[in-house]
From TrEMBL:
GO cellular component, one term: lamellipodium
Pfam families, sorted: EF-hand_SWAP70_N, PH
InterPro entries linked: EF-hand-dom_pair, EF-hand_SWAP70_N, PH-like_dom_sf, PH_domain, PH_SWAP70
Known role: Phosphatidylinositol 3,4,5-trisphosphate-dependent guanine nucleotide exchange factor (GEF) which, independently of RAS, transduces signals from tyrosine kinase receptors to RAC. It also mediates signaling of membrane ruffling. Regulates the actin cytoskeleton as an effector or adapter protein in response to agonist stimulated phosphatidylinositol (3,4)-bisphosphate production and cell protrusion.
Domain PH: 209-305
Protein name, entry field: Switch-associated protein 70
Compartments reported by the entry: Cell membrane; Cell projection, Lamellipodium; Cytoplasm; Nucleus
Oligomeric and partner information: The SWAP complex consists of NPM1, NCL, PARP1 and SWAP70.
SUPFAM superfamilies documented for this protein: EF-hand, PH domain-like
Gene3D superfamilies: Pleckstrin-homology domain (PH domain)/Phosphotyrosine-binding domain (PTB) (2.30.29.30)
Keyword terms, alphabetized: Cell membrane, Cell projection, Coiled coil, Cytoplasm, DNA-binding, Membrane, Nucleus, Phosphoprotein
Coiled-coil region: 315-536
Amino acid sequence: MWPREELLKPIWYAFTALDLDHRGKVSKSQLKVLSHNLCTVMQIPHDPVALEEHFKADDQGPLSNDGYMPYLNKFILDKVREDFNVVEFNKMCWILCYKKNICTKGLLIKDDDAFKVWCIFNFLSEDKYPLVIVSEEIEYFLRKLVDTMGSEWSEDKFADYKLQLQAKRNCLTVWEFIEVMGMGYFSKGMNRQTLSLGINEVFQELILDVLKQGYLLKKGHKRKNWTERWFILKPNSLSYFVNEDLVDEKGKIYLEQNCCVESLPDKDGKKCIFIIKCTDKTYEIIASDKKTKQEWIQAIQTCIQSLRLGLLSPHREARLRRRELRQRQHAEEDQLVEKMRQLQAANEKKQRQLEAMREKMEEATAKAALEELRRKRTQVDLQDRYRLDLEREKMVRQQMEEQVAQKSSELEQYFQRVQELENMYHRLEEALDDERQAKQDEEAMRKLQARLLEEEATKRAELEQIHLQQQRVLSQTESEKQELVAEQLAKERELQKAILQLEKLEHERQGAVEQYEEISRKLERAANKTKTWKDKVARHEGLVHLIHPGHKAPQRITNWGPASFTDIELEMRKKSWQERKRRL
């Protein structure tokens, strides 16, 4: 069923064309002719008496559009059938109005193309009278037209044209719209035939609801032969003709909610086959290639799905969505304007509040100036009083400073005496620490000397034992002499090593003796230093008596122990040992 809003738009143009005086009213005789023509093209039984009966109480002459509308709704639009020829209906309304409003001689488009543009305008225009088309719908149509002609869309050119539209409130009337298309502003470089083909294709899609068209092969139901037909897909039907002239319609497939379309595998040498299954029949169809086959299957499935969901044709759904989007945008703009108005009112209120605050600030400033004058006078009086008090305090402070200086001098002398005593006490502690350290070093040297002497005695005992073993070896038989000689050489090497170790121990002992002597000298110096500090402390305090170690003479150290042999005996023992060594 055609929407009533779309049918009223062409009728409105026909009614306006009959209004010769531009008073908004048309005579009853003209309305009779218009109603009869409408009933004829819309295939509605015409009742010539109905108009008279409907307006028999109205004897005031011509009728306005509002007066004619109830009759139009009741006797014509309520009886409209879906299968009437909408092109003839639009053609009849177009013939009544176009010659009085536009001439196509100087334009790039012919009368038939202008008629199609007029129909497209009625489809895309707003549902408000007088009818106009907004810039968004103009852009939608031009994009579709340019895409159909295979040209490239120029965003910059349309942006410039959109700026020109702002002077016309971003909309055009149908005659302005036809003139823009006929001037070729958006189709420069295109010939009339290309432009005409583009307009015709857009007209078929938007007005005739042609979603897809083209040649396909259809299998017959009786002969089972394959025949080429021109198919036209609409939202609820798939018609096929002998050729694209649309003169001889061979049949129509009505699409319903329970219909389906499926792809079939290749068979009998036939490729790209798909089938349409309806309630009573099935239709096998062949496309020219796989891409075309997939496009037809997708388009038919979309139509069936839309029927199941109760949706309109795709371009009508798109138009509805665009209108809803514009309505939301207008609502948002109205809200924004209202918010701006509220903000402006709030701003004016703030300005008034700021003005009142400024006046209050001026009053407060005057009061503050008076208060400042009073404060300055009070401050001068207080300064005089504070100056006298300050002079008295200055005299008292000078006296206090003199007393503090005297006390500071006495305290400094006392601190100096205490510091001297503390320094003396620290030096005494250092001297005692040196003495204790010297004693510890002396004890360590004694232990070291004893350990060295013990090691020397052990080495000498080992040497004597080795010498005895060598003597026993010499008294053995001659047969063992060779082995003994080798062993003797090994023993000689060990003896040589022992001699070297003995010499090393002698050297260490000599170093230990030197360290002992050095420690003894340090101990003596520490004792003397302690005695000196003891005398100083005794002179200062008379109470400290230090205990110092007694004098110790250096002891003689030998390899056989402290003071075991004299130097002569030690020399004799050394000579006898060397002599035994030469014998071996």
